Amino acid sequence: MAQSSKRPELLAPAGNLEKLKWAVQYGADAVYFGSEYSLRNFAGNFSLAQAEQGIKYLHRFGRKAYITLNIFPFSDEYDKILSLARNFDEMNADAIIVADLGVLMMLKREGIRAAVHISTQANTLSSQTALEYAELGASRVNLARELSLQQIKAILPAVSGKIQTEVFIHGAVCFSYSGRCAISDYLTGRRANRGECTHPCRWKYHLMEEERPGEYHPVFEDDRGLYFFNSKDLALFEYVPALAEIGVDSMKIEGRMKSVHYIGSVVSLYRRIIDGDEISSEEAFKLLGRVKNRGYSRGFIDGPAESKDCQLEDNHSTGGTVFAANVTDQTSDNGCFIRVRNKIFAGEKLEVLLPNGRLSEATLPKPLTDQKGETHEFANNEQIIRLTSPLPEFSILRRVSE
């Protein structure tokens, strides 16, 4: 993959303060996160105190903080949203992400200094819409995931210099139009467009025409059913140079509910690609296969989605590794300390992912020695173990099962 002429921003997710720090250390230029009134109510999210810590941490490393207030609010919620926006503005957040036109206009009218970015939930499919958002005071728009590369390419010349553009390049996607869905509301009472989605699109269904009871849709080969709406995860690493070349300003990764292992693995790969490293598609898929996924798809980037873009056989996420441990910030003479995430064994060999995205190997000591100097043949979750070889803080140790 050749280096492109423009270096876009790499925008990473964070569901809590720990994940924010990992995103920074693995190469994100900016991080988006939320508290209340965010479309990820189950992501952990930030208290105001944690948000302030996160913003300071990002700015200390020269990175940007984008706050999600992209829920579709009811009339009595605008005052609370404005109060939150003022808090984030006082913390010097770089931008606030919104989907609702009323929220956008309120923030501009009330003089919020932070830039306003338009969420993917707003379904922006055209330069006309993007330019109208610019007229209303938005500084960036996330283009809808349903656009192809050619459609994005057609939009860019008209909006260049007037409003920035952002494109999702990786992560779980919704089968519904830019994530605007009512199935969860209908089946479970949990409202997808209020951040409460239970992902019923991942469930198993039988499709039946109303006038033909008992006659199933012909896609079924047997009575097991089919995960007809279960979209594969998006992976557009092959298109990063092309998107940069046509002028996309920011490349966005989905995953505020994902683990630090996911954040480190995915962010570091895209960091390397944006920086011009030559990584084959085979190698990229291998690295992405290290974290849980539903299989990978190019989505709409090269045309309409097809059946191959759904994982039809089951709805499980699978990955090729177990996140075993990570290097802590504790210092050790001629070595380091690791925090155990899943059970490890004395003498076993583990793959190491460094924060720069490079791979290495480490063989655990035999026996394992903890902080108190006590020895063990194995160690369990949350134990702190000393390694005799030095590794950078935030390095990931994982057990590979090819």
Descriptive notes:
Helix 1 runs parallel beside helix 2 (48-60) and helix 3 crosses helix 4. The two termini are 25 Å apart. The chain has an 8-stranded parallel β-barrel with strand order 1-2-3-4-5-6-7-9, surrounded by 5 helices. Strands 15-14-20-11-12-19-16-17 form an 8-stranded antiparallel sheet, covered by helices on one side. It has 402 residues and is of the alpha/beta class. 25% of the residues lie in helices and 22% in strands. It contains 10 helices and 20 strands.
Layout of secondary structure:
Layout: E1 9-13, H1 17-25, E2 30-34, H2 48-60, E3 64-68, H3 78-90, E4 95-98, H4 101-109, E5 115-118, H5 127-135, E6 140-142, H6 149-159, E7 164-171, H7 183-188, E8 233-235, H8 240-246, E9 250-253, H9 260-274, H10 281-288, E10 296-297, E11 321-332, E12 335-340, E13 344-345, E14 349-353, E15 359-363, E16 368-370, E17 375-376, E18 378-379, E19 384-387, E20 396-400
Parallel strand pairs: 1-2, 1-9, 2-3, 3-4, 4-5, 5-6, 6-7, 7-9, 8-10
Antiparallel strand pairs: 7-8, 11-12, 11-20, 12-19, 13-18, 14-15, 14-20, 16-17, 16-19
Keywords: Hydrolase, Protease
Enzyme class: hydrolase
EC number: 3.4.-.-
